[in-house]
Amino acid sequence: MIFERLCIAVAGLLLITGEAFADHKQQTTDTGSFNFVVLADTAYSIPKDYPAYYTLISTINHANPAFTIHLGDTKGGGTNCGDKAQKKILEDFGRFEGPLIYTPGDNEWTDCRRIVAGGYKPVERLKVIREWFFPNSDSLGRQPIKLRTQVDQGFPENALWWKAGVLFVTAHIVGSNNGLTDGYKKAESEYRRRNEANLRWIEQAFAEATLEKAEAVVLAYHANMFFETPRPDGFKDVRSLIGELGSKFGKPVLLLHGDHHSFIIDQPYGGGAANIIRLQSFGAPDIKAVSVRVDTAEDSVFSFGPIYDGKR
């Protein structure tokens, strides 16, 4: 497999309690390189996509990554959002032999008000997702790992974990303008509460990364917040905060997201924050994934290679 190498920079930042340091000392001091896998926006066309999706999962299992991250949109926006569909998604997640970390997309709940998706109340669908996919602080997959989550504030889907000196974070940031939809008061209320929680979580993550001298930070979420500026802009606060904290952190920051179904690696904040790299993963109809290699002994830290059509 051909890897694309990217070199990134150095520096430091911020504050947090020492409790996390004590609990996760081992993970932060582990050394060595490792691989993890990212996928998003699949499977969509049901049941047509299942054979390719299952083959992709088998290929990922054979590669034996440290863990896999699904960046959301586990179903197509035009498919039903009911309990039967969610049970099937959860069942398929059980095919991953290693740890699977999941952050929800808009198709799973914000877009479920569409008639073609069943005409559900988005907040009710979100409640089901939290209960079924995030019942405790374990990841999904057949060999789950322990995560720290924001469950105490009502957001069990926001997770944090360490691997070989790198801090990994998920934040519930979704497409469809992050759920901020004109004319729906409940949607606006949910957005504001979740947005504030995301901001606190990201601040905490960068603070901990600085305190514990993380080699890099990886932030995973669903939405492509760099494509356009909607009005009102549901991404404004979080996009600004990531740019500010990432730039001050100075060391490599890797943003992972799906949403727009095409493979992109770039620097979304430009030269002012050249240490921030974003990877947008493949998505349907391309049933593909991305293998990310992490080696903090290398200047490039992160390298990337596609896993596609069931083959590396």
Produce the secondary structure layout.
Layout: E1 4-5, H1 19-23, H2 25-29, E2 34-39, H3 50-63, E3 68-70, H4 83-93, E4 100-102, H5 122-133, E5 148-150, E6 155-163, E7 166-170, H6 175-178, H7 185-211, E8 216-220, H8 236-249, E9 253-257, E10 264-266, E11 276-280, E12 288-295, E13 301-308
Parallel strand pairs: 2-3, 3-4, 7-8, 8-9, 9-11
Antiparallel strand pairs: 1-13, 2-12, 5-6, 6-7, 10-11, 12-13
Helix pairs in contact: 4-5, 7-8
List keywords for this structure.
about 20% strand; single chain; six-stranded mixed β-sheet; Purple Acid Phosphatase, chain A, domain 2; alpha/beta; disordered N terminus; about 300 residues; seven-stranded mixed β-sheet
* Main beta-sheet annotation: 7 strands, mixed
Q: How does CATH name the architecture? A: 4-Layer Sandwich
| CATH class (first level) name | Alpha Beta
Enumerate the spans where pLDDT stays under 50 for 5 or more consecutive residues.
1-26
Strand order of the largest sheet: 5-6-7-8-9-11-10
Compute the number of structural domains: 1
Examine the coordinates and then state which fold CATH places here, giving the name of the CATH topology.
Purple Acid Phosphatase, chain A, domain 2
Mean pLDDT: 88
Order of helices and strands: EHHEHEHEHEEEHHEHEEEEE
Shape: globular
Give the helix/strand class.
alpha/beta
